[in-house]
Design brief:
It comes from Oncorhynchus tshawytscha. It catalyses: L-glutamate 5-semialdehyde + phosphate + NADP(+) = L-glutamyl 5-phosphate + NADPH + H(+); L-glutamate + ATP = L-glutamyl 5-phosphate + ADP. Residues 42-279 form the Aspartate/glutamate/uridylate kinase domain. Residues 312-604 form the Aldehyde dehydrogenase domain. It is a single chain. The protein is α/β, with parallel strands linked by helices. The protein has 23 helices and 25 strands. Helix 16 (462-476) links the parallel strand 13 and strand 14.
Length: 748
Amino acid sequence: FLAALSLTLYIITPNCVFFLTVGLARANSNSFTHRGELRKAKRIVVKLGSAVVTRGDECGLALVYSFGAVAFGKQRLRHEILLSQSVRQALHSGQNQIKDMSVPVLEARACAAAGQSGLMALYEAMFTQYSTCTAQVLVTNLDFHDDQKRRNLNSTLQELLRMNIVPIINTNDAVVPPPEPNSDLQGVNVISIKDNDSLAARLAVEMKADLLIALSDVEGLYDSPPGTDDAKLIDIFYPGDQLSITYGTKSRVGIGGMEAKVKAALWALQGGTSVVIANGTHPKVTGHVITDIVEGKKVGTFFSEVKPAGPTVEQQTEMARNSGRTLAALHPEQRGEIICHLANLLVEKKEEILAANKMDMDLAVNAGQLSSALLNRLSLSPAKLNSLAIGLRQIALASQDSVGRVLRRTRVAHNLELEQITVPIGVLLVIFEARPDCLPQVSALAIASGNALLAKGGKEAANTNRILHELTQEALDIHWVKEAVQLVSTREEVEDLCRLDEMIDLIIPRGSSQLVKNIQSAAKGIPVLGHSEGICHVYIDSEAAIDKVIKIVRDSKCDYPAACNAMETLLVHRDILKTPLFDQIIDMLRTEQVKIHAGPRFASNLTFSPSEVKSLRTEYGDLECCIEVVDSMQEAIDHIHRYGSSHTDVIVTENEDTAERFLQQLDSACVFWNVSSRFADGYRFGLGAEVGISTARIHARGPVGLEGLLTTKWVLRGDGHTAADFSEQGTMEYLHENLPVTQPQTSN
């Protein structure tokens, strides 16, 4: 860890702090307002609570390298007393055996005096491994209240840091008096050093640290005592919020407790130091807790002086879930009315939508950071909005028999009937990049399937997403379920959203392959529906028709090169090479300004070939493609299985037997014969729209529309039946008869 952090670091262990530095003190006196800014922290104080480093018996040490003088001395004196008692007892009884012995209560100041030398010896041994010198500084409360002593302390610490010597600071517990009651936290200039929390806060402010990390034996600050049924971790804590929380008991060791941590944190925050309280007791779980916090990840409770105007993402998710349950309970006709109203609004508010989109486009063009493919995705037009409206009306029609549809009925026994029915998945998190048309599409699908939706759009489309979300909530409000669709517009990182496994039921990423991979890696507790790459192939068989080949290849590559269903590799049967058909294909691609990369086998057939492809597993997302040669249809299948992404693959041939074998043997989500790969789309399939294309092996596969956003539940209706009724001594027997499926009648 010491080698990993290239910044100034102060680590406080019980009654101890040491400093590491390679940076300068902060330039201003303001604390950070949100977690993302913690990456800028250069001076950090890390305080380890007694419960973090002390064993359960309160005498031993959980970490051999990190504890205070009192704990060290307590263990040392306990050992000495036990040894002394055993010797005396042996002399008295004449037997060298230890009977029941009790250890008297050890006075803390004596323990500290006995433990200081051993503590420093351990620290010196630890830092010597890094060729680093250490120095000890002992302080008391008076050293911070006397201006001259405080200046001397500051000067000493700065000089030691300048010489790359690590100062290890302890409270001088051998002489320190008991803390005075009611003397703690009397303002910015006064703080009683009566526990390690107040010591950490005082040193953090005194040394102008950017961040104070207080590690305890709980995940952070809760709105009620941890362990109670309704306790929820507070992500961000603001001054004034302390009246709304209830503190639990203090930890089993130490003298601070959570209330002391909060008071010290607010004092440090007022002095310009940001604070995070987190869990440091489970190394396998929290081994990277400090670096995670510094990287701005959502760990523990972050203290901030600036309260945002809107709700937190946790509050948004809770609102979406509650409203989503009401949405699922609506009649199908009512959900259809909401979707149709949204479709009408897309047409009626066309000018406002396009004006907002123009703002986003202008900002993106001026920034110059988006490729032409992403700019195409970001752009909206009247034609796109009309197509969206048509697709939404298709979804509205399809929604009439979606939720609550009976899939199976079984008579288990007399008067005992079982049904399997469709139900919403729950709360969906859809993350999409620069594609604002995704928002009304997925909103309509979520509404039709009775799911709540949490949408996280790219900042490139912020203005467009905002107005589209407003229109969505306006449509939802006609049946009082406005909160069922939420737009996440806070600074929440995608990785942080993926940690909300108790609140989100399914994540659907829409964007680059890197975005999808990152989400699949981060979402360890939430299912992810999607594909990481769209490496689509078109195979030209030896018996392909010339006119179909040119049309399909042009459309597959050039219609929308940025789409995930665009052709990336063109496989050509060897018999096609050096024929007029192949020449026409090359001429067409050149006319369309498609950059050609040659596969290894294709390059070997040419005297002067295009640039040889670096990888046959490449998604270009632009007017580029790879051409490779195969000797047979089976070789084409093998190539696709090896280098494809199981998205969409096409064969162009007039031989029906060859086509059918290709369709049956190829293991992709979409397999086409004499059709452009661009047809792999929910709208073109008649699904109305799609939330994405899945290459997964379970649940939904291919373009995922309304059906893919539903799951099932089992409903069993009986008349006092028990499992005992069907035992050997019971009076009933199983029938398991399949019954006709009849759909429930709905009425307004």
